[in-house]
């Protein structure tokens, strides 16, 4: 008896306490000797009524006994809420009542906290802008918060009579909600989806999440559905995507216009200024041949002017080439071959181009220039930062796309730690998007860098731009 956590009382027909365990002494504050001088009615004041005692005794001696709640008075007059289980007990041939008394103060405290939490939660749910509803296992709505009532324009009573299985229109948003609920019931796991529906003539988007609810035995008893109106979020995302697309279109058009200007400027420099300088060089040569051989000063000045003109002609050629190499007019493969040769000639590392026959790859003007610039920028970055000894350029035609890879064995870098002002890499990625393709950069410290450009061979935006 002393190992039991509940108080034990053995009471005779005169309500005298014949036995108590240690827990009873701890709970009520009496010693065993003091208990022997008390009546049970001293602890449970309701038993001071003769009729109550008679009823209590009658119910307690039944085979199943009786369990009830009451309040017991401690030695210091504190009332303790208890749960009492009374049953018949025969000792020395006389009937007694064995009372097992459980202190429910902690239980009452927890129940109070639970009610308080439920009240707080109900306050949150009732005032939440989210749509919150509960469905039983027959998919009948058993609760809907005010947001649901306002959204659908129905009263709580109307919603609670709504059964999902009887109200699902085929091919409508209700069917998608039905599938979401069914998945939750079958998998017994949370499920979520986005539902698009019409409300007041406007399209609305709800993010709905369904979660199973369980009883104390761990069995699912209902499904809680929470819906959040994310229409504005999706509209903002659409607007942002449209703005990004417009920005890309603007960048693409600006880049194409810049390339056209470069091409025209390179042509003007090469044709107009180059011809003028060549004519000037020819005239100086004729003057030099006609000059008096004894006029050393004039001869020296003419030679100096011719050297200056030669240097200017070379500068013009270099500027024209940097603006737009004439080799681009021959196609992508010849242009990449020229770029490879120039790269190694100017002190770059060993560069190897692996490409098909030059007639295999045919690109329009915009795609040709953009792809060339990506490879050019990749080689420039490798020369400046990679400290590589070998660079490979792979050109891989596919049925409907072209893949160009620039791979070096340099020191590499952490791609996610690139400085925001590293416009070279950003330019490569942007040119990939301009081609309606993708430019990826893969690298790691000590493992080199791989830049991969993939774009469709037919680029609709180019023809459209040319028509405009």
Write the layout of secondary structure elements.
Blueprint: E1 7-11, E2 17-20, H1 22-28, H2 32-36, H3 40-43, H4 50-60, E3 66-73, E4 79-91, E5 94-103, H5 105-127, E6 131-136, E7 141-144, H6 146-152, H7 156-160, H8 164-167, H9 173-187, E8 191-199, E9 202-214, E10 220-229, H10 231-290, H11 296-323, H12 332-345, E11 350-354, H13 365-386, E12 390-397, E13 401-408, H14 423-434, E14 438-443, E15 449-456, H15 460-467
Parallel strand pairs: 11-12
Antiparallel strand pairs: 1-2, 1-5, 3-4, 4-5, 6-7, 6-10, 8-9, 9-10, 12-13, 13-15, 14-15
Helix pairs in contact: 10-11, 10-14, 12-13, 13-14
The major sheet is characterized as: 5 strands, antiparallel
Question: Helix and strand succession?
Answer: EEHHHHEEEHEEHHHHEEEHHHEHEEHEEH
Helical proportion, percent range: 40-55%
Low-pLDDT segments = 459-468
Distance between the termini: 98 Å
Strand order in the largest sheet: 2-1-5-4-3
Round the Cα radius of gyration to an integer and report it: 46 Å
Mean pLDDT: 83
Class based on secondary structure composition and strand pairing: alpha+beta
Percentage beta strand: 25-35%
Count up the helices.
15
**Molecular shape:** elongated
Number of strands: 15
Question: How is this structure best described in words?
Answer:
- This protein has 468 residues and is of the alpha+beta class.
- It has 15 helices and 15 strands.
- The strands form three sheets. A five-stranded antiparallel beta sheet has the order 2-1-5-4-3.
- Strand 1 (7-11) and strand 2 (17-20) form a beta hairpin.
- Helix 10 (231-290) packs across helix 14.
- The protein is elongated, with a radius of gyration of 46 Å.
- Mean pLDDT is 83; it is low at 459-468.
């Amino acid at each position: 008896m002393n190992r039991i956590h509940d108080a034990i009382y053995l009471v005779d027909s005169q309500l005298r306490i014949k036995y108590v365990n240690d827990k009873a002494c701890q709970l009520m504050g009496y010693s065993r000797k003091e208990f022997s001088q008390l009546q049970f009615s001293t602890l449970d004041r309701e038993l001071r009524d003769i009729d109550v005692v008679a009823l209590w005794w009658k119910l307690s001696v039944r085979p199943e006994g009786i369990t009830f709640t009451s309040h017991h008075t401690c030695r210091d007059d504190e009332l303790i809420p208890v749960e009492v289980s009374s049953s018949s007990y025969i000792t020395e041939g006389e009937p007694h009542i064995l009372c097992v008394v459980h202190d429910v103060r902690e239980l009452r405290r927890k129940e109070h906290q639970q009610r308080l939490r439920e009240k707080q939660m109900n306050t949150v749910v009732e005032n939440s802008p989210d749509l919150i509803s509960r469905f039983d296992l027959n998919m009948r709505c058993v609760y809907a918060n005010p947001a649901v009532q306002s959204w659908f324009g129905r009263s709580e009573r109307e919603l609670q009579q709504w059964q999902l299985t009887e109200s699902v229109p085929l091919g409508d948003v209700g069917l998608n909600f039905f599938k979401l609920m069914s998945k939750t019931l079958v998998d017994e796991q949370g499920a979520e989806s986005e539902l698009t529906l019409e409300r007041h003539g406007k399209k609305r988007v709800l993010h709905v999440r369904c979660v199973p609810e369980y009883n104390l035995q761990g069995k699912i008893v209902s499904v809680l559905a929470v819906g959040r109106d994310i229409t504005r979020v999706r509209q903002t995302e659409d607007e942002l995507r449209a703005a990004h697309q417009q920005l890309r279109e603007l960048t693409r058009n600006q880049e194409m216009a810049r390339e056209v200007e470069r091409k025209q400027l390179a042509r003007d420099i090469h044709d107009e200024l180059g011809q003028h300088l060549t004519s000037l060089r020819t005239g100086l040569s004729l003057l030099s041949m006609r000059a008096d051989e004894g006029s050393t000063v004039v001869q020296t000045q003419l030679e100096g002017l011719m050297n200056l003109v030669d240097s200017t002609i070379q500068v013009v050629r270099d500027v024209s080439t940097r603006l737009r190499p004439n080799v681009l007019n021959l196609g992508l493969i010849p242009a990449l071959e020229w770029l490879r040769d120039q790269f190694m000639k100017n002190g770059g590392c060993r560069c190897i181009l692996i490409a098909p026959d030059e007639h295999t790859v045919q690109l329009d003007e915009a795609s040709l220039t953009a792809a060339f610039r990506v490879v050019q920028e990749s080689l420039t970055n490798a020369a400046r930062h990679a400290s590589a000894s070998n660079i490979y350029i792979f050109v891989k035609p596919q049925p409907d796309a072209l893949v160009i890879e620039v791979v070096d064995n340099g020191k590499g870098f952490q791609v996610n730690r690139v400085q925001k002002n590293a416009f070279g890499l950003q330019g490569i990625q942007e040119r990939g998007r301009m081609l309606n393709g993708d430019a990826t950069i893969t690298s790691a410290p000590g493992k080199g860098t791989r830049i991969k450009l993939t774009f469709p061979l037919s680029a609709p935006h180019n023809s459209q731009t040319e028509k405009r």
